[in-house]
Design brief:
- One of its GO terms (cellular component) is plasma membrane.
- Keywords: Disulfide bond, EGF-like domain, Repeat, Signal.
- This is Putative neurogenic locus notch-like protein 1.
- This protein is mainly β.
- 4% of the residues lie in helices and 41% in strands.
- The protein folds into three domains: 133 residues, Sandwich (Immunoglobulin-like); 139 residues, Immunoglobulin-like, CATH 2.60.40; 162 residues, Immunoglobulin-like, CATH 2.60.40.
- A hairpin with a 6-residue loop joins β40 and β41.
- The longest helix has 15 residues.
- The radius of gyration is 52 Å and the shape is rod-shaped.
Length: 538
């Protein structure tokens, strides 16, 4: 009876065979890359068996087949079947029941020319009997096991935006055109990609060189040659001569300082691939731009009358010619400009504006004039106006009659030497709609043009204080009256007592003393006396 039972146990175990509980591939070395045919992997495959099953030892026992899968248990579709040619030692690995044994040093290759990493994140091993196992045996259980693979797509480590000359953009313009090259460097251990319509480029403006503070992202139109750039791992590639139409609407120069370009994968690429970056900035690059606003090259003011006079109020008529750079920005809107007319001690307008000697008006906001949409703004010391400058180039502003507001240059207590220059300052109205940048040809926002205004001081003889036909002669800062023979005194208002009289009896020189009837005789030929009436020797 005992012998019978032992025989039945042996028969039961023989029927169960080698029962595999798990197959676990372990990658010892290697990784796989998109776009490569021979991705080499070195694996060990651990086989854990049921202790109630059989053990097996012999030759040619095992076969292994590898495949790629999108599931960690190997279920579902299988990709790229890889039958591994086990050597005689690997194929003859003995496995004892209830143990875990490894088939080591298994070499396999993976073809990722048409597959991407997200499609096949796992490599799976399926254990089978060898073609001619010795001894033959029954193999059952879970024969498939998977492990994640180190799969690498195209990895960009650096990109560079290059211009042949420094980039220039005009603010608030839709017609900026820039041509650039975009240089790419990929990781030598990453994947490669070859095909058509692989790439997209997008541009955006930014306030910072690291592309923070970015504006709306706009696609760049690429040619088929540019978008089809093949990129081999570790080999630099360049998307050349890209022409981008850059719109800066509605931004002003203060709202951006850099143009940035970023590489993206084209969703319509002829071959699928994975694109990643080694760091946050590897796919994009920014370059500083020169921004141009409205650029005034010259102001040419003119005033009427052509000459002013000190000692009085001078009512002025003012007009202004404005010259702008054709390469600068245009602006159109309302309440755009502010003009200030003022006196100054320096020819560049940065000296002293003399109190009491500025253009004076009452404080008022004047109504719109419908020609060219210009508006006048007046304050207690200056007069301002706004106007539309719709296209770059030469613009003559409409004639402005400051007298109407009213305006005058009050020089009642000044001389011409105290107001050497009269200046005009053009600036952007703080209430302008839209906002814009206004600079001169040197980039300065303070646009001032000064000139010497012909000025005449009143003549000291203008009021002609000289009397009785006397002649007034200007002398230094004053005047002198040249009297006729019949009158004397500072203003020739006193009758000359020596005129047509014989006050010195013909015996001396008569000199008037400047007061009525007062004179002195200077006697000659020995005569004496108050009137030289005493003969010599008497």
């Amino acid at each position: 009876m005992v012998e019978y039972l032992n025989r039945q146990v042996r028969l039961s175990r023989s029927v169960s065979g080698v029962n595999v509980l798990s197959v676990s591939p372990v990658i010892q070395s290697g990784f796989v890359r998109e776009g490569f045919f021979l991705n080499a992997l070195n694996l060990d495959v651990a086989v854990r068996t049921d202790g109630n099953g059989d053990s097996v030892s012999g030759t040619g026992l095992w076969g292994l087949e590898f495949f790629l899968s999108d599931r960690d248990d190997g279920s579902g579709a299988r990709y790229d079947f890889l039958t591994s040619g086990l050597n005689s030692i690997q194929a003859s690995t003995a496995i004892a029941a209830g143990s875990t044994e490894s088939i080591t040093g298994v070499f396999s290759t993976v073809d990722l020319r048409t597959l991407t990493c997200p499609q096949v994140p796992y490599i799976c091993a399926e254990l089978s009997k060898g073609n001619n196992p010795n001894p033959d045996f029954l193999l059952t259980g879970s024969l498939v096991g998977c492990t994640a693979i180190d799969c690498r797509g195209v990895v960009i480590v650096d990109s560079q935006l290059q211009f042949s000359s420094p980039p220039v953009l005009v603010e608030r313009s839709s017609v900026n055109s820039l041509t650039f090259d975009f240089l790419l460097t990929s990781d030598t251990t990453g994947g490669s990609v070859m095909g058509d319509d692989l790439w997209n480029l997008v541009w955006y403006l930014s306030t910072e060189p690291d592309d923070t503070g970015m504006t709306q992202v706009i696609p760049v139109s690429l040619t088929s040659q540019q978008s089809g750039l093949d990129l081999v791992a570790g080999t630099p590639g360049t998307i050349r001569s890209v022409n981008a139409q850059i719109s800066t609407l509605p931004l002003t120069c203060s709202e951006f300082g850099y143009i940035c370009v970023r590489l993206e994968k084209n969703p319509s690429a002829s071959i699928d691939f994975t694109l990643s970056a080694s760091n946050d900035q590897a796919l994009s690059d920014c370059q500083q731009v020169t921004c141009r606003g409205v650029e005034v090259t010259n102001l040419r003011p003119s005033y009427s009358p052509e000459q002013i006079r000190s000692g009085q109020n001078n009512f002025l008529m003012f007009s202004l010619d404005v010259f702008t750079n054709s390469g600068g920005a245009s602006v159109s809107g309302t309440d755009l400009w502010m003009v200030e007319v003022f006196t100054n001690t320096n020819s560049n307008g940065d000296g002293t504006s003399l109190d009491g000697f500025s253009i004076k008006t009452s404080f008022t906001y004047c109504s719109f004039l419908y020609i060219e949409l210009f508006v006048i703004f007046c304050s207690i010391n200056h007069c301002y106006h706004t106007n539309r400058l719709s296209e770059p180039g030469y613009h003559r502003w409409h004639h402005i009659d400051l007298k109407q507001h009213p305006s005058n240059l009050d020089l009642t207590s000044a001389t011409c030497s105290e107001i050497p220059f009269i200046c005009v300052r053009l600036s952007r109205n703080q209430f302008s709609n839209p906002d814009f940048t206004l600079v001169d040809s040197n980039g300065d926002q303070d646009i001032v043009q000064c000139q010497q205004y012909p000025c005449e001081d009143p003549s000291p003889c203008e009021n002609n204080f000289c009397q009785n036909g006397a002649t007034c002669v200007v002398q230094n800062d004053g005047f002198t009256c040249i009297c006729t023979n019949a009158f004397v005194g500072q203003f020739c208002g006193t009758v000359n007592p020596c005129f047509q009289t014989n006050a010195c009896n013909g015996n001396g020189l008569c000199t008037p003393l400047g007061l009525p009837g007062l004179l002195v005789c200077t006697c000659t030929n020995g005569f004496t006396g108050v009137n030289c009436q005493v003969p010599p020797g008497k």
